[in-house]
Design brief:
There is one protein chain. A three-stranded antiparallel β-sheet has the order 1-2-3. Strands 4-5 form a two-stranded antiparallel ribbon. 14% of the residues lie in helices and 32% in strands. It contains two helices and five strands. With 85 residues, it is of the alpha+beta class.
């Protein structure tokens, strides 16, 4: 799929969420589909997903850091997020 912002090829994957018990918050992440197929859901953490080629998606709260910017196309339901570094 071509990125609507830059025209480059996008990589398909899936979103996941894992509990981060050390700070009591959930962490959102993206990973290639084969990572989800290979690992059991209860063993897949954001850290493990990142080690397998995934990306942790940090969500800004607007207080201690900027909110996460995102865009949606209501016609095709495509969502793009600008990741916080």
């Amino acid at each position: 799929m071509k990125c609507p912002k830059c025209g480059k090829e996008m990589i398909a994957g899936e979103m996941g969420i894992s509990a981060n018990s050390s700070i009591g918050r959930s962490t959102l992440f993206w990973a290639p589909k084969e990572v989800f197929n290979r690992l059991l859901p209860n063993t897949l953490t954001a850290k493990k997903a990142v080690s397998e080629g995934g990306v942790q998606i940090k969500i800004g709260n607007g207080i201690t850091n900027n909110r996460t910017a995102g865009y949606i196309c209501r016609d095709c339901n495509c969502v793009l997020l600008d990741l916080i570094k």
